Structure formats: C-alpha cells, structure tokens
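Q: I'm building a small set of examples for a reading group on sequence design. Run inverse folding on the following structure and report the sequence directly after it, with nothing in between.
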C-alpha cells in the first residue's frame, strides 16, 4: 500500500456499489473484522448518498496508511455543490433538509474515528474521515513535531505517482522534501523515489547542499523538480531552496510569504549558484507545499475561517479548487506547533 490516494469521480449511484466493495476489501486487507468492514460500508454509503443528493457529483479519495502499528483508512469527499450554511445544526440526528431521517452525518461521525467537515454557501463542501480497526481505537499519540496532511494522486490513467514527499526529523529541527519527476508514469516515479532515497540518507543540513547532492545522484534518471525546506528551532529560521516549479508558501495569520525557486531540472541542469531563502519561523505558521498538478493562483484568505481548520481540511479545500486533472498532484499542509 503506497502513499497515494485512489480517486473516483462520483456522478450517479452506478459506481457506489463498486467503490464500497473495493474499500470493504481494503478494510479486510488492513486486518479489520468483518463487522468493522461492514461499518466502513455504512460510512461510504452515507458519504456517497449525500454527495449525489446534495451536490449532484463530486470526488471521493481513499487510501490505507500505517497507524500505531496497524492500519487506518483515510477518506476525502469533495464537491462543488451549494454548500452548507450551518454545519453544527446538520450534525444533530433528526435534522434533515430533504425529508429523510436526518441520521447520515451522525452515523458517519459515530462510526468513524475522525470526521471533519468544512463548507461555504455557494462554494461546496470538503469532508475528511479516518477509519481505524475499531471505532473505540485511541486517537493517535501526537509524536509528530510537524502535524501535517498530504493529498497525493496519480495522473489519470497511471498506476504510480511521479510526485513524492518525505519529512526527516532531526535533533532540534526537521527537513521537508517535496519533488515531482518530469512527466508522469514509471520514469517520473523512479526519478522522484531515487531523490527521496538520497534525501533520507543525506547528512547535509543546508538545503542547497542537499539539492546539489540529489542532482549528482539522479543523473541517470529522467530528472525532477524539488524543494527542500528546513527549520532549526533554536535559531527560529526556515531555510528553503528549490529548483523547478514546486510551490512553497508560509502563512502567518492573514499574511503569507511565497518562496520562488530557481529554474532548472535536478539531475540535468541546475544553476551554478544556489542560495537559500531564509524566513522567520514561529509557532502557528501554516506551511503549504505542492507540485504543479495544482494551480498556484490561490489564496487561503478567500476561504472563510479556513486557517482555523485542521491541516486535512485545508489540503482538501485547496485540492478541490486547484487540481488541474492532467498530472500527478501532491499537496502538503503543515500547521506548526513546536
């Protein structure tokens, strides 16, 4: 099981049974009991039913990832429907806007381990769901120094993703890599995975040195674009260097700082001179990095109160509005808490 999400466009009920069966089988592969897999079926059915009923169509993404020595299933549901005025009101059992029993969202909340929803009238809705082996599973122990969410999807028709990412935790700081192999498919996948392997093993602290090391080690591949962002908590500084079109933006409240990478292709041609950009680090910043599978002309300030939401909902909102649909796409959103 890899890091990428499987994505389905849902436009009518004909696909729902297939998706439900596919995720049911995934749940069994993850070690879920038959009963828990059945509860997963209910969650999928309610999410898909609401999507068709209230938005007409939308997208469902899912994947399985390790969770405290076991597995969990992550789901995103995205739509561009009419949106919801009062989320708190519709979460109560018995409330319905369509003459039903009004228990759908309540059922999703009770049967899932995490359920988050964000919506704006006229904009649509994004939902995030985590399903663990048991509905009573303990919430994850917060050991991450960088709580984050990532949505990564393959280019339509491809079986592997040419984008990649990795976070490396160091004494007193961390380093983040986000890369995009040229094009898409197996050759792009090979390039970015080789780069991640170099990044994981690198002893360098300076992002420019890491970029140069990757450049020398991936010359036999198709090449890639990538950015490395590093933070040192003691100095309170972000250090960032990138080559090619990985978008990197730091938000602090309503203000943001965009990093501009160098032109070039890592593994083929990079500038002789590479310099880091330094940005002050502070708690409560939001770091957003994404590949060119998403458009870059977005602004979090256009989404009411989105900065108050969890990283997963921020990533989902940006993915929903900006996915190009013709390439691999990866977006990482991290909310700093150190």
């Amino acid at each position: 099981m890899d890091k990428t999400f499987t994505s389905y466009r849902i436009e009518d009920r004909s696909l729902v049974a297939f998706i439900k069966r596919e995720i049911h089988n995934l749940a069994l592969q993850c070690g879920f009991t038959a009963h828990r897999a059945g509860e997963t079926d209910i969650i999928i059915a309610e999410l898909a039913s609401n999507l068709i009923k209230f938005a007409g169509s939308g997208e469902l993404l899912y994947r399985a990832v390790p969770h405290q020595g076991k597995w969990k299933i992550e789901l995103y549901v995205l739509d561009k429907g009419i949106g919801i005025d009062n989320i708190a009101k519709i979460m109560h059992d018995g409330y319905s806007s369509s003459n039903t029993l009004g228990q759908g969202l309540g059922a999703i909340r009770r049967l899932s381990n995490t359920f988050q929803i964000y919506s704006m009238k006229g904009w649509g809705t994004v939902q995030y769901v985590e399903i663990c082996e048991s509905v009573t599973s303990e919430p994850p122990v917060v050991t991450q120094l960088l709580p984050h969410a990532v949505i990564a999807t393959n280019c339509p028709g491809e079986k592997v993703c040419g984008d990649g990412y990795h976070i490396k935790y160091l004494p007193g700081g961390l380093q983040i890599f986000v890369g995009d192999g040229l094009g898409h498919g197996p050759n792009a996948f090979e390039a970015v995975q080789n780069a991640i392997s170099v990044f994981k093993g690198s002893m360098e602290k300076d992002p420019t040195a890491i970029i140069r090391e990757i450049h020398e080690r991936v010359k036999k591949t198709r090449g890639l674009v990538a950015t490395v962002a590093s933070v040192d908590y003691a100095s309170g500084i972000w250090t960032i260097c990138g080559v090619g079109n990985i978008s990197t933006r730091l938000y602090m409240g309503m203000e943001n700082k965009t990093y501009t990478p160098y032109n070039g292709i890592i593994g083929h041609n990079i500038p002789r001179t590479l310099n880091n950009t330094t940005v002050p680090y502070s708690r409560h910043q939001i770091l957003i990095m994404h590949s060119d599978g998403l458009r870059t002309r977005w602004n979090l300030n256009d989404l009411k109160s989105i900065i108050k939401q969890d990283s997963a909902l921020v990533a989902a909102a940006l993915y929903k509005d900006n996915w190009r649909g013709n390439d691999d796409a990866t977006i990482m959103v991290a909310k700093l808490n150190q």
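The mean pLDDT is 92.
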